[in-house]
Design a protein that fits this description.
CATH class of the largest domain in chain A: Alpha Beta
Distance between the termini of chain A: 71 Å
Oligomer: homodimer
CATH architecture of the largest domain in chain A: 3-Layer(aba) Sandwich
Strand content of chain A: 15-25%
Radius of gyration of chain A: 27 Å
CATH superfamily of the largest domain in chain A: Response regulator
Helix content of chain A: 40-55%
Structural class of chain A: alpha/beta
Number of helices of chain A: 13
């Protein structure tokens, strides 16, 4: 124990080098290098002496040096929007599983929906010489990545497309899923349907709004602009948007929530609301089937999004050099009760 | 677009070097190095020419080289147990926020509760020369880390303690929280209380079981071994454990769930159960207050765990070399209904 404590106190003490190992093992530097890099030409006895010296000194190979020599690092980067959004958990894990199956380390971090932070994080990962990147973009201009891609960093975008560069992308069918959700509410008799979505500059928010409008128009229904609210998914913002739509002489009788962050707040608002209001949420979420009423959702397959993106990335790393691909993962409407509530008399 | 596509196709094309920049700018290598590293002694005009060459060639400094020269990398590693467990989301984000406030990049990955995978990931991060590590351990022997710590990698354990080495650790009060949960059920009249927890080798599972037993003993209640089930938190395992405890002539009248993974499955089992059964879960979770009945929990402050661990880490990186610290974060019982259900007549 005290060894470690002492170790802690010489935090910036120098690491043992191959020279130290060679000296202790009584062999040449080249011999140590052969053992460390698993090259032939070392007798079993010598290899044992070197291994003993390595163990005794706690020598570790410095990958920074190896990266400089060899180029490939067997690591990929994943840039998420928010590490704490449950939607990204299964996506994150799926990417890691694929990386692991290819013997690669996953390095990740989040942009917190800040384009500058995305660029900073992406370039920091590039500077670490990751072999490839899976990016859930916050920015809408990725020309800053072109030199990295040209220099050999494979890049796949997921959940949202790249901006102003051409790269592989894997998306959910946000437009189609939103159409399904709103058509479902219309089929249950609703005419005044509110949409609360994420910030309009976010591709998925924009696509889901487009799906909402398209479904309303297809049913010959007007869209009162007071029924549409896009913005941050912070609970306060969503709560006030929902409260406004539910007030007045002509309140909405149904809500379409643009993602799981919006839905969970909408569920809270509706739980306190005097009249029953229908709700369909984009994204499934844990326990959605156990709240009362159970929540009808348009489910995305987050794990499949991540798995597909990672597979595309390793396909590039394995040498595929055809034109960038755009893949779309279908969504699925799951009726559970909240989306089948008829319009209340206002 | 096609530029990028071509870029993609020469994926392993060589990157521009400082030499290329020097040639294009018509200056010496040392001048380029001065500009890249922000050193003085370059005229504004020369600096502009170098910057233009850097932009034109898409040159990026290679941090692997800088790391070899300077030692510090301004990056820390976080090793989680499961990237998809919602408990770790706020912890992950809190560590990232502290790292960011110190200008450090967060690199993370998950052990999937596999000790070998933890060691592989930790050593891979050490080989990348992270300055420090925050570890939620899956292993119970961390002597493999002693050489890294001695070599200068600051290390803080969170959620679970280190095994067989001495290091900073930040824990929730699992023992006290579990006692509170079980005492709460006893106070509501329960005598036959089941405990379903995570794998016994996991510190928190062990501590929560100890809290359960201590509370039962303190109330003079026997513990039938058929009321205790530890193991993986996979839904099937938890479902069968709960079903067994709820069956037979002397079923449990209350369940204490050892973590949020167990609780969500227990909620599903009890939703289908004919008799009302009380439930208290360790860990709060989203919508716990909106399921019916609302779930009484022992809440941990995951964000505070992560924040405290990261602050301890940077305290070490700032040179603190006192003995390793052990900090305990209190838990909080939140009564919501499921934990206040009286015993049903069996």
């Amino acid at each position: 124990m005290s060894d470690t404590a002492r170790g802690t106190s010489r935090r910036y003490g120098t690491r043992p080098t191959m020279k130290d190992v060679a000296a202790r093992a009584g062999v040449g530097l080249k011999t140590v290098s052969r053992v460390v890099n698993g090259e032939p030409g070392v007798t079993p006895d010598t290899e044992r002496r070197v291994q003993e010296a390595i163990t005794a000194l706690g020598f570790r190979r410095n990958d920074s040096a190896r990266i400089l020599r060899k180029g490939r690092t067997a690591s990929i980067g994943l840039v998420l929007e928010d590490l704490a959004d449950p939607f990204y958990g299964p996506l994150n894990r799926a990417v890691e599983e694929v990386a692991r199956s290819h013997g690669a380390l996953l390095i990740n971090g989040s942009s917190a929906e800040d384009p500058a932070r995305e660029q900073e994080l992406v370039l920091a990962l590039c500077a670490r010489r990751v072999d490839g990147l899976v990016i859930i973009p916050a920015a809408d201009d990725h020309r800053y990545l072109a030199p990295e891609i040209a220099a050999g960093i494979a890049t796949v975008f997921v959940d949202r497309p790249a901006g102003r560069i051409d790269a592989d992308v894997v998306l959910s069918d946000s437009f189609g899923g939103a159409q399904d959700a709103v058509a479902h509410l219309i089929a249950h008799g609703h005419r005044r349907i509110g949409f609360i979505g994420d910030q309009p500059r976010i591709h998925t928010a924009h696509e889901r709004l487009r799906g909402y409008r398209t479904a309303m128009v297809a049913a010959g229904l007007p869209v009162d602009e007071s029924w549409v609210s896009l913005g941050p998914t912070a609970p306060e913002r969503v709560r006030s948007a929902a409260t406004t739509m539910l007030a007045g002489p002509q309140p909405v009788t149904a809500l379409f929530a643009g993602n799981n962050r919006v839905t969970v707040t909408a569920v809270r608002v509706l739980a306190d609301h005097p009249r029953p209001v229908a709700l369909v949420g984009f994204d499934d979420f844990e326990l959605a089937d156990l709240v009362n009423p159970a929540i009808t959702v348009v489910a995305q397959d987050a794990a499949r999004l991540g798995r597909t993106a990672a597979q595309l990335l390793f396909r590039r790393l394995d040498g595929a050099d055809d034109a960038p691909r755009r893949m779309e993962i279908p969504t699925r409407l799951i009726p559970r009760g909240s989306g089948e509530i008829p319009p209340a008399e206002s």
